[in-house]
Design a protein that fits this description.
Elements: H1 4-15, H2 21-35, H3 47-63, H4 72-85, H5 89-106, H6 112-140
Helix pairs in contact: 1-6, 2-3, 2-5, 4-6, 5-6
Bound molecules: protoporphyrin IX containing FE.
């Protein structure tokens, strides 16, 4: 699905991630709530619990780059759950932007190639999540 070079770039990025996973995700939430205070109420008070799940999910995605098709249903279901959390389609662009800024800060020697590769992966996941939510919404209507 993704070209080999894109997959290698993403894998190498994850391997170059600096700081503990907890720090990375805490930075992500700090950025996110600063950029968009209005999304804060969607999350539980203690985002640390949630934080690990987001990073775990990214790791699973990167480890699954050779067979992402097998995760399509799971990612679409994740999108359905997100709609139930109150997440709107426009939030995905925001989250992708903040996530990208966080990765840029924490991955050493970040380059345009990293930016492109992670952008493609995040777009792919967000599109599937949005599709899942739309389909569930259509089915319920
Ligand atoms: C790249 C796209 C995203 C990924 C991979 C992702 C991943 C996850 C995962 C794995 C969970 C754990 C709960 C579950 O599995 O249902 C979760 C929960 C959550 N996510 Fe996301 N997410 C993404 C985008 C977003 C966006 C755009 C928002 C909107 C602000 C958002 C808000 C939330 C909220 C509110 C929860 C529940 C938190 C809680 O229980 O306190 N996520 N996300």
């Amino acid at each position: 699905m993704f070209e080999e070079q894109v997959k290698q770039t993403v894998r190498s990025g994850l391997a170059r991630l600096r700081g503990s996973p907890g720090n990375v995700t805490r930075d992500f939430y700090d950025h996110l709530f600063k950029a968009a205070p209005s999304v804060r109420p969607l999350f539980r008070d203690d985002v640390d619990v949630q934080a690990d799940k987001l990073l775990d999910m990214l790791v699973v995605l990167v480890q699954s780059l050779d067979h992402l098709q097998e995760l399509v249903t799971e990612i679409e279901s994740l999108g359905v759950r997100h709609a139930a959390y109150g997440v709107k389609e426009e939030h995905y662009i925001l989250v992708a932007r903040v996530l990208m800024a966080t990765l840029r800060d924490h991955i050493s020697n970040w380059s345009d190639q990293d930016e492109n590769a992670w952008g493609m992966l995040l777009d792919y996941v967000a599109d599937l999540m949005i599709t899942g939510a739309r389909e569930a919404n259509g089915a319920a209507a």
